[in-house]
Design goal:
Chain lengths: 267, 345
């Protein structure tokens, strides 16, 4: 039986290699494209661990930030001719999942390699980690649970982690922690699915992907829009510790509007 | 596409089968007992190999997984007690911290899709993370365990032979632990030999106990896994203020006080019983169902039939049911050398 499983595995690897080679790998007809995720607060660039409290939410509560992290996955790109390219995802999480971490500049640039040449005008991506991936078991790469964005007690990834300090928070050390997760959609027990899929056009611009080009698309994630949007208006003084799917159900409604495409460098 | 896959697998199978053991001969091949339902585990991602199993076995018995190297998985999951904790209602972790639920027995986990009393973990690979990072268990960071293992020559060698590279990461560590636990199949009890017609005869009392069990207990302790894997409120409490059970995961009031139905395999060995370890003996458990079931909004309907709480059972019936449950004890499993401590030679 062991043999059969390993054979199925190797056969699958073989098949996937064969099927992948149809794509335009490493030739003039393909190239890279980078998505730069710039985290901001309102109009200000985001700085972690500042000495003072430089930011103010929509409720007038001042704060500073210590952690801003989120998962981007299942990226799809649309060309001006309407055709799409899907960034491949591997069952073990080693490809197709990206952890954007404000404390790690390199992580904020998500580069897709060997993308078919064309004029790209739109991106679709998921914020978070979907059920089909979690159900595959232990993951690696961006999804390694050692990255500490994994809920052990209620298996699943934290999609968006925003932590900081506000003098009005009643939690220990005036901290606030907003951990948005929850993917186990289940009618029987009313479990919530906070996965968000976002489609953003490049505002009329296009990103030319060619062998000789390295276009960059700059996206913004605005923490103040994360705290105040269509889902809810966060008050640090009332509710500064959110650690479960349902506790973040309304907050997750703010995620989509917090991301915008700012500009494109054709390069 | 499927035909191509079958063709390739077939071709490879024939090409490689010369030097391999058949599953019946290979002690490290996962084999489902014929009276069991299908496995739930994702073996396609993580097939069992002897080397992976042996790595998982070492990890299971090595306290290096805990912050101060004081607690191994095996501390609270002891083989001679069906991989449950024989000493404590609530197991003790690093710095003698106390947990708040009884340590479950580990057996037949390949067939389960939810783990722990509240079912919050929905894949076997994630089960050890819970124990490693819990402050009242191993109180360690996952990344630090990986670092510690990577420094040890023993583990560099074992990871290399199991996964083809001496580098350690959490995925491989969790895969190895799953390989070890997936092989912990308890399906060799007197009951199994009876039901598979392998020459075992149950006594008259045991057979009567089986019939009583089927009538009174099998709505929940179903299939030859002796659990239907569901979450139920079995009337231990009226308010569940200390532990809301499944509600903690689903955040859904109708799940309050519900806990996962445990398997009864090796129940003779896995005392104490219930999520809070409140009962020491099987007789106490049956007394609860016969006369102590407490009413609450989420009480399971099978324990509230025709206006009567609980499951009516006479003293004689209870004795026969206990006699039957003891036929589920699998001494071949609890003494199987494959699962013993590899550091004790």
């Amino acid at each position: 039986m062991k043999k059969i499983y390993s054979l199925i595995f190797f056969a699958t690897v073989l098949l996937s290699t064969v099927s992948c080679s149809d794509d335009d790998n490493n030739n003039a007809e393909s190239g890279p494209i980078t998505f730069e995720f710039d985290n901001i607060v309102g109009t200000a660039d985001l700085q972690l661990n500042t000495a003072d409290n430089p930011y103010t939410n929509s409720k007038g509560e001042v704060y500073k930030l210590t952690t801003v992290k989120y998962y981007i996955s299942n990226i799809k790109l649309k060309k001006s001719d309407g055709t799409t390219y899907t960034d491949p995802v591997k069952p073990d999480g080693s490809e197709g999942y990206y952890l954007v971490d404000e404390s790690d500049a390199e992580s904020q640039g998500v580069t897709l390699e060997n993308v078919p040449a064309g004029e790209y005008t739109e991106i679709t991506f998921t914020v978070g980690v979907d059920a089909t991936q979690v159900d595959q078991g232990a993951q690696t790469g961006a999804l390694d649970p050692a990255n500490n964005l994994f809920w052990s007690w209620n298996s699943g990834y934290i999609f968006v982690m925003v932590e900081g300090v506000s003098p009005v928070s009643t939690e220990t050390d005036n901290a606030f922690q907003y951990h948005v997760g929850g993917y186990k959609e289940d009618a029987a027990s009313n479990q919530v699915n906070n996965i968000k899929t976002i489609t953003l056009s490049f505002n009329g611009d296009s990103a030319p992907v060619r062998a000789a080009h390295e276009p960059e698309v700059h996206l913004l994630f605005d923490v103040n829009k994360f705290f105040n949007g269509p889902g809810e208006e966060v008050t640090f003084s009332a509710s500064a510790a959110r650690h479960s799917p349902k506790a973040c159900e309304n907050l997750s409604g703010n995620i989509s509007a917090a991301f915008v495409v700012d500009h494109v460098h054709a390069n | 596409m499927r035909n191509v896959l079958i063709f390739i697998c077939g071709a490879l199978l024939f090409g490689c089968s010369g030097d391999s053991l058949s599953p019946a001969e290979d002690p490290y091949a996962f084999q489902k007992p014929e009276n069991f339902p299908d496995a739930a585990y994702t073996f396609g991602n993580n097939p069992v190999t002897k080397q992976g199993f042996e790595l998982g076995r070492a990890l299971f018995y090595d306290p290096i997984l805990s912050r101060d190297s004081s607690i191994a998985c095996a501390n609270c999951h002891q083989q001679h007690k069906g991989f449950s904790d024989p000493l404590h209602k609530f197991s003790r972790g690093v710095n003698d911290a106390s947990g708040f639920r009884n340590a479950p027995a580990i057996q037949n986990v390949a067939f389960q899709s939810h783990f722990f009393w509240d079912g919050g973990v929905n894949h076997l690979d994630f089960v050890p993370i819970n124990a490693i990072i819990s402050e009242v268990e191993m109180a360690e960071e996952l990344g630090h365990v990986v670092t510690k293992l990577g420094r040890r020559t023993l583990y560099q060698e074992k990871f290399n032979s199991a996964f083809g590279s001496p580098s350690v990461d959490s995925q491989k560590m969790l895969y190895a632990l799953s390989q070890f636990m997936n092989m912990m199949i308890s399906g060799d009890s007197r009951y199994d030999h009876h039901v598979r017609k392998e020459g075992e005869t149950l006594t008259g009392d045991e057979l009567e106990g089986l019939n009583l069990f089927t009538a009174k207990c099998s709505p929940c302790h179903a299939t030859d896994l002796f659990t239907d894997g569901s979450f139920r409120n079995n009337g231990l409490n009226e308010t569940f203020e200390l532990d809301s059970g499944r509600e903690r995961i689903t955040e859904f009031a109708p799940d309050r006080g519900k806990f996962k139905v445990p398997s009864l395999r090796n129940a003779e060995l896995t005392s104490p019983y219930m999520h809070d370890g409140r009962f020491k003996t099987l007789e106490e458990v049956l007394d609860h169902y016969a006369q102590s079931v407490k009413e609450s909004e989420t009480l399971d309907p099978v324990l509230r039939q025709e206006g009567t709480l609980g499951i009516p059972m006479s003293g004689e019936e209870k004795a026969k049911i206990v006699a039957f449950i003891k036929t589920l004890t699998d001494r071949n499993f609890t003494s199987d050398k494959r699962f013993s401590n590899p550091f004790l030679k």
